[in-house]
Specification:
11 helices; alpha+beta; elongated; 4-stranded antiparallel beta sheet; 538 residues; single chain; WD40_repeat_dom_sf
């Protein structure tokens, strides 16, 4: 019998039970797989001096191998090679070093110190020693030293420090182009140069504000200012130059500086203070991620395109700084106890491993297709429920749904014009305020007398008991005593014929007598005090 060649040899959709389970690598996200490929090691481990800043030389200067500068104790350490090895140590005259910054061509390196002095060194020659330029303007720690990133500007840099002074320098002449003495009201700890324009740079301070400056306008004031809400530790422009990331407290916020400082997104993925921000390039896709490091020991990778956290790396010590090489193959983090953790990713080995997984061992690797997400259309009920669980962002105009007011039982009965039932309901609850309010409403409607006349024996007993308890209260005495007189006038015969009602009247009479006696006593006391007050006023 000849085979039927009209049907394919393999079925178009094999049975689900025959398909192999999806591997862990296939289930993992692309970002998670990339960052897990880094092999962690300790680049430096020494005395307990915090590694305050880490920075790599620009991509143009690090074409062969990345160059890392780390401010640690009283010096700036330079690392280079593949893998990274210590190249040389630049001493900063016995003071603590802060904020190393490479020039755009990587030839020069500037760093600040604890006394506020900024020094410029040669970074491209291993044997270079003394500082080429010394910039003196600050009276306190210079925590922000930044060369311009865009435009190839090699002549200027800006500095800021704990004295709240902001200075824009002409490096060759060692003179400031302009200075802003009180740029902020507190320590300036964060700064960044714009990748879109070499004249723009941003600063962040412990006064919780972030300011955008333009070197072309000089010291006339910031071009833009907005509040982060927490003490600002780090500021960083995203690659486009239109978005700015700020870190303070346990929050990282993304701002639209082109749109006037509008808050785009807020990330609260850390449990302690976020100390540093950096950009990390993924070598396999070419995409850029925002990296944040905090004193909780975590380094987070944030996809600012999709506005979500994609990966977390845990370190055994609090982190103060983080940096990623321009090629995206080296990741470093500096701790508060003198250790620099390095993650190295070998691109060829990882790519070969990925290709091997894709190729398999010659067998056909069935992968079940992912179900397509149905498109919601107006004929679906879920179409009208979209975005009902979305939380409002800062700056959004929120139209709140009016809260449903819970109406009391007596109010419902009043709305139905069931006046007697409303009065009885208020008396049963035994709330003097509500009961008196119902009686006053019935007086306004001219229905209280009719309601008193229609009460049966038990309901009349409730009213008399309420009058006994509250008729002597100063707040309601005048109104309730008038109601009591009306009840005695209208229901005299019913009260005489019922023992329980007579007992309520006796109790009410006794309470009124006691109140009258108290008032007489108070009047006597007032008579004794009045002459004394008259003498005191003389």
């Amino acid at each position: 019998m000849a085979a039927d060649t009209s049907k394919p040899f393999f079925p178009a959709a094999p049975h689900q039970a025959l398909l192999p389970s999806r591997s862990a690598a296939a289930r993992a996200s692309l970002d998670g797989s990339y960052w897990r490929a880094f092999r962690s090691s300790e680049l430096v481990s020494g005395a307990d001096f915090p590694v305050t800043d880490l920075t790599f030389a620009p991509a143009a200067a690090a074409a062969s191998s990345p160059t890392l500068a780390a401010s640690w104790s009283t010096s700036v350490h330079l690392f280079s090679g593949d893998p990274l090895e210590q190249l040389r140590r630049i001493s900063v005259a016995g003071d603590l070093a802060f904020s190393p910054s490479f020039r755009c061509d990587g030839a020069l390196l500037a760093a600040g110190d604890k006394k506020g002095v900024v020094r410029v060194f040669r970074a491209d020659k291993p044997a270079a020693g003394a500082a080429l330029r010394t910039l003196r303007a600050h009276a306190a720690e210079t925590r922000v030293v930044r060369y311009p990133v865009a435009g190839g500007d090699k002549l200027h840099l800006f500095t800021a420090g704990d004295d709240a002074l902001l200075t824009y320098w002409d490096v060759p002449s060692e003179t400031p182009v302009f200075s802003v003495p009180a740029a902020h009201r507190d320590y300036i700890r964060g700064g960044a140069a714009s990748p879109a324009d070499h004249n723009l740079f941003a600063t962040g301070s412990y006064d919780r504000t972030v300011k955008l400056w333009d070197a072309r306008t000089g010291n006339t004031g910031p071009s833009l200012s907005f509040s982060h809400g927490e003490l600002v530790e780090s500021v960083l422009f995203l690659p486009s130059g239109g978005l700015l990331a700020t870190a303070g407290g346990n929050v990282v916020k993304i701002w639209d500086v082109i749109g006037g400082g509008r808050l785009v997104h807020s990330v609260e993925s850390h449990v302690k203070t976020v100390m540093a921000l950096a950009l990390g390039k993924m070598a396999n896709t070419g995409e850029t991620r925002l990296l944040s490091a905090g004193i909780d020991g975590y380094m987070k990778s944030f996809d600012f395109g999709k506005l979500k956290i994609t990966h977390s790396l845990r370190h055994p010590q609090p982190l103060l700084s983080v940096a990623c090489s321009p090629c995206g193959t080296v990741l470093v983090a500096g701790s508060a106890k003198g250790k620099i953790y390095m993650g190295k990713r070998k691109k060829k080995a990882v790519d070969e491993e990925d290709e091997g997984k894709k190729a398999g061992s010659g067998e056909i690797d069935w992968v079940s297709p992912k179900p397509e997400k149905p498109v919601l259309r107006p004929n679906y009920y879920r179409y009208f429920l979209r975005a009902q669980n979305e939380k409002a962002k800062e700056g959004d105009f929120v139209i709140e749904k009016p809260k449903k007011v819970k109406v009391a039982e007596h109010d419902k009965l009043l709305r139905k014009f069931r006046h007697k039932d409303a009065l009885v309901s208020a008396l049963i609850k035994n709330n003097p305020r509500n009961a008196v309010a119902v009686m006053e409403e019935l007086v306004a409607r001219r229905k209280l007398v009719r309601c008193i006349g229609n009460l049966d024996t038990e309901e009349l007993g409730l009213l008399l008991e309420f009058l006994r308890r509250n008729a002597t209260l100063p707040r309601y005495a005048r109104f309730l005593l008038g109601v009591a007189n009306k009840v005695l006038e209208m229901r005299e015969e019913d009260i005489r014929s019922d023992e329980k009602l007579r007992m309520h009247i006796r109790n009410l009479k006794r309470m009124v007598g006691e109140e009258i006696q108290i008032q007489h006593t108070l009047q006597g006391i007032q008579g004794m005090i009045s002459p004394m007050l008259a003498l005191a006023t003389r």
